[in-house]
Amino acid sequence: MTLRSRAGDATVAVVDAAVALAAAGSTDEVLEVAAEHARRLAGAGRVLITVPGGRYEVNGDRLDVAAESPAAVVPLRGSSGEPRGELRFWPDGDRRSAATLPAADQTMLAQLGRLIVLRLESTRLVEAEHRIAATLQHSLLPQALPKVPGAKIASRYRAGSREAEVGGDWYDAVVGPDGHLVLVVGDVVGKGVRAAAAMGQIRNALRAYVLEGFEPGEALARLNRLARTLGGRTIATVACLRFDPGSRRVRISSAGHPPPLAIDPGGPVRFLHREALGPPIGALAHVTFRTEEDVLPVGGRIVLYTDGVQKDLAAGVEAGLSRLVGEAAAPTADLDEQLDLLITRMAGRAPRDDVALLALEATEVNRLDLRLPADPRQLSGLRHRVDRFLLAHGVPEADATDLMVALSEAAANAIEHPVTPSHLMISVEVAVQPDEVLAIVRDTGRWRPSSDSRRRQRGRGLALIGVLTELSVDRSRRGTTVTLRRRLSGG
């Protein structure tokens, strides 16, 4: 092969490498692509690329290239000549060694080195921007959700799979001055630091309007006027919902956001509104946002979400919404399970876009009703749910601790002892009264006969419950009911 033809082949190889490097989306991908193309270009058996904070090694078809010293080293330098790493080459036995490459090939390797450094610098800038945007975005999400009697709340947030595309999705939950619960989900148009910063301004302004007591429609109207005064053009979609735990009345307004789902207990899944209630925030001046009203039955749920959860690029928006309704109809034990199901089935384990979900379930103001699988692994979740419920109702810590121990023991008995349950479930009811807490644990099976050791163990469990609470046990053919009553401190 002539020097000219070798040089032509090398030029094509460098161009191919440039295209592959441009498609690499992270530092690790850049190193992997660079090492493989450098090996092919040099005809080497082994190539090692090292840069500050990273390295990648690739071998050819032969694995016995154990020369202790590299045959050639190509330095990687930045635009001003500063060292940024190096490429090391080892020969591949029956091919020419990198140390004896013609001058044209050495030149091409130097060009490849410059391409690698440029792509690494670009990628690291993008990664740094992603880290800043992600940190800012996560810092503005609620660290904890409010606990309100008469309502359960759960949330999920998952960043998109492409690191350079951190967006402006957010959610918020605020208790207004009237004790009503306000839920907000929004999405600022754009990506990166600018979108995350705009999200922070929009989110904090809307929170302030809510805390001033403005209804959802008026709060969005004020937010729209503010957005049009911010630097640059800020466009965002927002859904704002106010829930009264006492009457279970819902008021919803929306600025171009996908409609929230309403899930009636044992009934259909529907959208809270079908028609647009207003344009996106910042799109038009002097906008009035309509408000729709609804009533959520006890056990009913509402799910607010950003469009990443229902975005179906192949089938379109309507198909995505229809699929979302179908997935939301699947029976789930609680809000956390429902949100996990939606985010996994709709957005996938690595969603293309950011996803935010915020859900509400209406409960009796002073009562918690749970049905759980008869599985010991459910006990941790049960304790967490009851603890939150007692905390929301202001039950003193000492009373709550004793109740949790007694209730956990009763639930463990209900899971362990029935030998022929008619349903593989247990039920737990907790009601807070002005001077006491009443808890009832039911199973539906016949308890197995006890050996002396098991009887003594069971006796100790019931004795512990009896020390911490007033205890009564009712056994029948339909199952066992354990009732716990705890007088509150000072009650």
List the helices and strands and how they pair.
Blueprint: H1 3-23, H2 27-42, E1 46-51, E2 54-59, E3 72-77, E4 83-90, H3 103-140, E5 151-158, E6 168-175, E7 181-188, H4 192-211, H5 216-227, E8 236-244, E9 249-255, E10 261-263, E11 269-271, E12 291-295, E13 301-305, H6 317-328, H7 335-347, E14 355-362, E15 367-373, H8 379-392, H9 397-416, E16 425-432, E17 436-442, H10 452-468, E18 470-476, E19 479-487
Antiparallel strand pairs: 1-2, 1-4, 3-4, 5-14, 6-7, 7-8, 8-9, 9-12, 10-11, 10-13, 13-14, 15-16, 16-17, 17-19, 18-19
Overall description:
This protein is of the alpha+beta class and 491 residues long. Helix content is 37%, strand content 26%. It has ten helices and 19 strands. The strands form four sheets. Strands 5-14-13-10-11 form a five-stranded antiparallel sheet, covered by helices on one side. A five-stranded antiparallel sheet has the order 6-7-8-9-12. The protein is globular and about 90 Å long.
Short description:
This protein is an alpha+beta fold.
Task: List the keywords.
alpha+beta, five-stranded antiparallel β-sheet
Q: What string, H for helix and E for strand, traces the elements in order?
A: HHEEEEHEEEHHEEEEEEHHEEHHEEHEE
Mean of residue pLDDT? 83
Q: Given the structure, what is the number of helices?
A: 10
Q: Which percent range fits the helix content?
A: 25-40%
**Low-confidence spans: pLDDT under 50, at least 5 residues?**
452-456
| Order of strands in the sheet with most strands | 5-14-13-10-11
Which percent band covers the strand fraction? 25-35%
Compute the number of strand runs. 19
Instruction: Give the structural class.
Output: alpha+beta
Profile the largest sheet: 5 strands, antiparallel
Distance between the termini: 98 Å
Shape: globular
Our Rg estimate from Cα atoms comes to 31 Å
